[in-house]
């Protein structure tokens, strides 16, 4: 009996091979341990702590008052409205600027595209603060843009371009643009030249080819990029704070204000938790309706 | 003539001739096409055959309108097309990559050209179904493209190319991504489809066997110029030059010398021929390996046959055929290919064995010898 099992070719070294496989898997897992520990230490624990704080009142007792206030005071609702408004508008602006830009890069020969991509990425490597203040210099009342426009006769009086929604959007769109262009460019590069040839060959005019073939095929990159931009915008602080000049109050700005003025960790945490939940909700809905997996990680 | 009965509507011609004149395309200093003249007859299956970089695809792209030649004329029937944008040329095309739209189902892909032409929903469905039937994919209309095998994609690409009844069909190495068995099966199917549709077909391939199998005529292209245009028979049996003789089929080339009387010699063999030769030009003898035969003890009429006594240098068994490299003089070897059979003594030739090979004089092929060989 035992002899026949040993002679079975399937069983030859079977145990040893299986053990080797298990060892290999454990080794791979151990490589991921530092990263896992890091995530637990710098993300899960602080977020958990914030979550806990949001339920602690000023007297140290567990309470729902921070959330209750958020419903009670209209100013909170306005902050969230502003946050979503700025995020949506920034995303739309990025699409309007980024789509033609990505298309231009995608049709260039690879080497030239690399050069222009550098131009897109270069601001990326400059400090966020420097770029934001640079916009302040450009856009302010007696700034370069107003001076130029007036001397060129485009308008007569300095136009208010900063410390308002306009300035915030200009700055935000500039900073977010690469996050949209990169995935979009990636998906456009993957569209074979033959696709457009085939569309034309089958009788589609250039406009029809674009809308019926090119655009649908670039959509996955656009959705991925838009989501990244939108989610980043939701929690953005520096640019709206500087270019909004206190008139564009987004959640992150509001959190800072609460901490600086009232030192109220509970209220600040509650705002953070709501923002986090809202962000997760947006991503969840996007995943449900837009096949996010395909958009972010490529099909299959 | 023969397929008049298959013609769906006699008023509309099912095929158009293509007239190409002086077609020239330069990339930098390199001529991809150097003043090519080519007449493609209405309804014929013409293959552009050549090595990669020869310019065959450039011609096809110019017919489809995907590249802009530097000079030349391309007419479909009487209409000049050289300036017409691709979407107004009305030619069907099967791409090497198939170029099926991944965001559409099989049926949507095939319906795409019909939709653009404003064909009504009912007729469109009917024609898509008929096209799917023709390529034997009736059940797969609702599938996504990425659920199809390579062979199935090929058929969908084909259906999409002919569903709108173009009068010219272009194919750019459509079978190159398929494995050998499927490729050979598709070659026959494509040929039948061509007979059924009666449409003028221009086919690009670098596979000479494929070209010989499928074509009514073959245009052999090298370095942006036509090397020879003719039927598969003519191309194979009467190659016009060294390139065609070498590129199409296997061959051994032996240099010939001319004596004072204008007769051609290979070493001590006189090569009589019905080719017209000019005095003072160099020629070569082209031998197809399968046209040789073994000569035993029997007497041979040397008026009809050239005899090359030689010795086997190498022997390779390749299944349905075997191959013997035979040295016939100090400087020259010829290849000899023959069908195998299990009882034949030829199947066990060894290097060093004596072997006399015969060649019928009607199988003699003569080509001019150019300086660059």
Explain how this protein is built.
- The complex is a heterodimer of chains A (300) and B (373).
- Chain A has 300 residues and is mainly alpha-helical.
- Chain A folds into two domains: 14-51; 72-297, Orthogonal Bundle (MetI-like fold).
- Chain A is built from 14 helices and no strands.
- In chain A, helix 4 packs across helix 10 (206-234), helix 6 runs parallel beside helix 11 (238-244) and helix 8 (165-189) packs across helix 10.
- Chain B is α+β, with helices and mostly antiparallel strands.
- Chain B has two domains: 4-91 and 166-242, Rossmann fold (3-Layer(aba) Sandwich), CATH 3.40.50.300; 250-368, OB fold (Dihydrolipoamide Acetyltransferase, E2P) (Beta Barrel), CATH 2.40.50.140.
- In chain B, the strands form four sheets. Chain B has a six-stranded mixed beta sheet, with helices on both faces. Chain B has a five-stranded antiparallel beta sheet with strand order 13-12-11-14-20. A five-stranded antiparallel beta sheet of chain B has the order 15-19-16-17-18, with no helix packed on it.
- In chain B, helix 2 packs across helix 3.
- Chain A binds chain B through residues 192, 194-195, 197-206, 208-209, 212-213, 216-217, 299-300, and chain B through 64-66, 85-93, 95-97, 99-103, 112-113, 116-117, 146, 160, 164.
> Gyration radius of chain A, to the nearest Å?
26 Å
Number of helices of chain A: 14
Kindly report the CATH topology of the largest domain in chain A: MetI-like fold
Low-confidence stretches of chain A: none
Q: What is the CATH superfamily label of the largest domain in chain A?
A: MetI-like
CATH topology of the largest domain in chain B: Rossmann fold
Overall morphology of chain B: globular
Question: What's a quick, concise take on this entry?
Answer:
Chain A is mostly helical and 300 residues long.
Considering the chains and any ligands shown, give keywords for the structure.
heterodimer; A: 300 residues; mainly alpha; MetI-like fold; 2 domains; 0% strand; flat; B: 373 residues; alpha+beta; Rossmann fold; OB fold (Dihydrolipoamide Acetyltransferase, E2P); six-stranded mixed β-sheet; five-stranded antiparallel β-sheet; 8 helices; 23% helix; globular; disordered N terminus
